[in-house]
Predict the structure.
Amino acid sequence: MNTYWRTFKTAAWLGWEMDSNWTEPWLFVIYSIVKPVAGAFILIFMYVVIWSINGIPDPHSFAFLYVGNAFFIFVGSTLFGTFQVIQSDREWYQTIRYVYISPISYYVYILGRAFSKIVVSVFAVLITLAFGVFLLASYGVQMQLTLDRLPLFFVSLALGLFVLLAIGITLGAATFLMARHSQTLAEAVPGVFYVFCGVLFPLTILPTWGQAIGEAIPLTYWFEITRRILLPFQLNTGLAGFDDLEILAFLLVSTVIFFALSIGVFKLGEYLARRAGKIDMTTSY
Amino acid sequence: MPYAVETRDLTRVFAGKKKHWWRKPKPNEEESRGPVTALDGVSLQIREGELFGLLGPNGAGKTTLIKILATLLLPTSGKAFVAGNDVTKDPFPIRQRINMVSGGETSGYGLLTTRENIWMFSQFYGVPSKVSKARIDELMHAFGLWDKRDAKVRLISSGQRQKMNMIRGFVTEPDILFLDEPTLGLDVNAARTIREYVMNWVRGQSGKTVLLTTHYMAEADEMCDRIAIIDKGKILACDTPENLKRMIHTQTTFRLEVDPLQDTSTFQRMDGVVNFSLRDDASKNRTELTFILENEAPVAEILSAITAQGAKVHALRKTEPTLEDVFISMVGRGFE
């Protein structure tokens, strides 16, 4: 069996065991349902507050932020999934030296571990979307995924997840050289994406420099095309001049670029950590 | 035929902490800021099939050497080869042939069972799942961990975790196994089980090599075909345990148990004293002195010097030279 596939499979199994095995199965199922539903209620509350301030209901804006937040679940969990692998194996489980010296690709190992986080997130996203179908319908917005748009949806979803993994590993390579400060990175970076990638509001609300930042981040195109597929209307996001395939092409190109970048940065981070003796460092703080 | 392990003038320097203009150093911190030379020109050859020991006190550089050989750490200068491959340039072929176990640590994924932990690592080495499971069962019996095979790692004791990690090291059937203080913190029986298993593993089949680091003299003496004595990053001597002890066979070793002494500098100036070490035994409020002497003549003078300080001699015995005595003879202090 190919070493990469074997590594990926075993790492994904390990990640799944750790993500799903921390409690009784029934409690895990309840947690997996309650968490995203509770998240959806926060969005409803936000919308109700804005509605009461403006005095005018705006179901399109609500649908915009709802879909954005549903898919943002992937961002938070995938980035955290990649960032925390090195840190947890080093500080908590103290297994990193034995995983690292085994004849595997450590890069693929991280991908495998992060993949389990994606699988767990799929449940959360599906539940959030399912809840949203009924919720948005009550505001007169019909979320839809027609058969002819399915291939586009799955291709864009795959690219979005690939680019997330690539970004996660690019930034995660820095954690080879960091102590627990990487936790800050895991919290700050998704925060940046939340503001600049059109998750909560269209890019056009941002100042010009903010829009430029957003347009340089591939996730912006992923959120854009996902909304185009799922929602029956378009808000002015600043990307209206591009058709679906052009948006998909932006996403594809940026995914390839980020993957190449992630391999280079990962190798550099690994080399520097091996040189500095930080691969298996434990800080005890 | 290449050596299983070979190092040439291997040096590793750890950079000190950087000074930051915004942070005032704490008292005594300045001393710890400078670079530390963990290995200083180490040259070693370990033959295939050897059980080779690296003996030295804490901080001697043993773990640093193992980390370099296991491809965890890059050397600052010099060369290191494992199974003929350069650790700096070709880590992957090395990783296919080695494994490593460190004692005194409690690594493992707490939510997995002991069996799952070991199986998972075997998968990284491409051991077929059926073969891996059979080997795990066999090793669990051998190491007395069978009862804990389905226990979650978070629920077993630190000694049992250490046994689990030993099994992890053997389950992949490496050609070269690095054991870093494998019996550290284990009870007598568990330590004996591990020592016997390691010796049988190396000697019961051809082509298996073990590099063992330890600061337990008896362990090194009992297990190793050859031993390198290391201190402050330098190899002081390298030979069979018998030959090392023979190095000081013309000398005489005396051990004394005395009341705590105020001044020990006089011993160094005495004629016939090659070297000596002292170790305080706080529980008995006594000091144990080990003297390496050219002959027995200085004994009377030593006893006089002790009693002159008002201290009492509780025990005096002449002993056969041990590996620690070799170390004391070379550096003038013991391992602790």
